[in-house]
Specification:
Blueprint lengths: L2 H14 L1 E3 L3 E3 L2 H116 L6 H30 L1
Antiparallel strand pairs: 1-2
Amino acid sequence: MSVYRVLDKLEAYVHEGTWLPAGYRILSEERLVELVEKIRASLPEEVGRAKVIAKDHERMMRAAQEKAQAIVDEAASKKDELIDENEIVQRARTTADVVLREAEERARVIRDGAEGYAADVLAEMENRLAAALGAVRKGREVLKKPSETADRPLIDAAAKSKRAAFDLRAATEETAELESV
């Protein structure tokens, strides 16, 4: 029987007792002792349950505190990992930006150099072709004129024409080499 039930019976018994003048009641000693003994008999069972509950409460509190500490430690570790990862990503992006800028600058320098070289080669070819064209024109003019002069000017014109043709051929070969590069 539970302690509370026995206490309820004790209280009911006290209220049922006979009233005496001056606010006293008459109760059976036997009945009171019997109820107190029942309380004592029930008390160890209730105290035992209370001890188990208190012990479980302490164990559960310790377990909850340990679990909370583990969660806090894990969160701190995860935070450190995320910070490290974020720093690594930022460094990688910075490095990638630097490498990209350097590559673009190198490409620009190479492109400018190639364009300058091609312009120089084309200007040289243009000069040689102009010289060859001039020689061809002179040769044609000489051929159009009647042969009043001796053969010497004709031989000189033919030599100049031959030289111009050779220069033209050399310029064409250089152009083909440049195009293959």
